[in-house]
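C-alpha cells please, single chain.
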Amino acid sequence: MTTTFALHPSASKTLIAHAVARLPQVQSALNAGKIFIGHGTTNIAVAQALLDMKVERPEQYVAGVVTGQVACITNPASRMQPWCLDHGAALKTDWLDFIKSFQSGDIFIKGANAVDPSGRVGILMANEYGGTIGQAIGTLKARGIEIIVPVGLEKLIPSCTEAQKGLGIDRTEIRLGVPVGYMVLDNITLVTEIESLKILYGIDAAMIGGGGVGGMEGAVILAADCPSEQQAHDLLHEIKELNRQKPLFIDKTPCKDCLTPCDFIRK
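Here you go.
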C-alpha cells in the first residue's frame, strides 16, 4: 500500500536524527568507542537523540547558517565545541585532538549543505582552513573512519561535483552572504529521509516532490510503500507528530560585526 505525505525541514531533521541514533555502528561506538558530532542544525537533533537531552541554546552548536536572506555564519565567540563522545560520555576537550585518537569503529558525524542523486554531499566552507571537515578529512580518510552524513532532501541538487566548480573564498567578491569554498564527499554513510524510513520502519520510500508555503517551505514530499493498511496509519500518525514541531530559528552574526561585508549591506 502506497501512502504519501510531506515533511517540513525541522520534522525531517528529527526523523533523520532518530535513524542515525538507531544505526548499529553508532550504538556500538556509543557504548564502546568514540563519536564526533559536528556543528549543525541536523546534528543538534542527532546529539539530542543519542544523549536523550535537549539543547537549550542551539545557536551555540551552529557555525554556518542560512537565515535573514543570506548564507552567513553565527557569532564565533558564542560557539561551543562540537560533541566529543567517549563511551557515551561527552568530553570537554579539543575536538581536533579527539579526532587524532580515532580508531576503526569510531564514528564521525557531519552535516552537509547539499546532496545529489549519486549519493555525494557538498559542504560549504567559510573558514579559510576548511572548517571542521577541512581539518579532519585527512585523518578520517587515512584511518578509514566511517563518516555519517545526516542531510535532508530539501538540499537535493543535480550534482555536487559540478557545484564546486568556480567556488573559493577568494573567488566570489560580489555576493550576498559569506564567501565560501566547497568540498565534495563520497564513500560516506548517507542518511536522508529515505534511508531513515528504512532504518526506523523497514519501509521503502521515494521523493516525489518538494517545496511549500505557510511553514512548509523546504518541505520534502515522499511516497512510502507500506506492507499493510495498519502500518500506513501508524506511519502517518508519526509524520503528523513530527510536523507539529516548530521551525528552528538561529541568529547570524550581525552585519555590523562582519569581517567580510557583502552586498547585502552595501549601498
